[in-house]
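Morning. Coffee machine broken again, so started the prediction first thing and wrote up yesterday's gels while waiting. Chain of 279 residues, entered below exactly as on the submission form.
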Amino acid sequence: MKPKVNVLIGAGSIGQAIARRVSAGRRIIVADLRADNAEAAAEVLADAGFDVSTAVVDVSSRESVHHLVETACGVGDVVGMIHAAGVSPSQACPETIMRVDLYGTALVLEEFGEVIAPGGSGVVIASQSGHRLPALTPEQDEALAVTPVEDLLDLPMLSRHEVTDSLRAYQLSKRGNVLRVRAEAVRWGRRHARINAISPGIIITPLARDELAGPRGEGYRRMIDLCPAKRAGTPDEVGTVGELLMSERGAFITGSDILMDGGVTASYWCGPLRPEPAL
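Came back before lunch.
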């Protein structure tokens, strides 16, 4: 009998929190752009009793992602996929953000959608930022959802003349992630598998600390102060939602996105974080 395999892409604390909840009795492959990040996460998971191996992956490269898929399938049946890799607005330029966060996510969904085992499930970590983007046109939504992966970055709405700001690139990428998950749920369903997204708010991780210390830090602290929860979230809280979506308890949930941001988005559209109207 083949081992059951969960693939964790992105070795950060949010992905680890989900993996810990859904990987008992399964082999975990921790994949990251940096081998040292993958190895550090694997050591933590191994010390907690999990059977873990590591891989290096560049989600912006089809060859690299395909190699990861082949590696995982060589170990056993891929029953779980947690995609938590990405870069933030303070870490990269617009082109890199869209290459990693938008194209990379679409690529991962496509490649793993070809091999996910019946009964399998996956989770993509999106972001509250996608929910603060004003509504796109139906045509733009459809384009982000179903444009062939290799044509995605050639969409006119994503040209460097249209997207000049890293935050805008990030918001579009995360909106695109949610739309892509919705569309991919149909294809994954043909394999009797499920795929969902989680859109976390400010979760205290190394990436979030970069944001809080960066040029947008004041805005992030304002979000925390003025949201209903009055605090940031923790990776374990995201892990709880990930466990629901990937387990049998979430068997009727697919193609969905769960926004968990302490009410930041609610405050942005309906409360004290609402932007001042343009003059």
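The mean pLDDT is 96. Going to sketch it on the whiteboard this afternoon.
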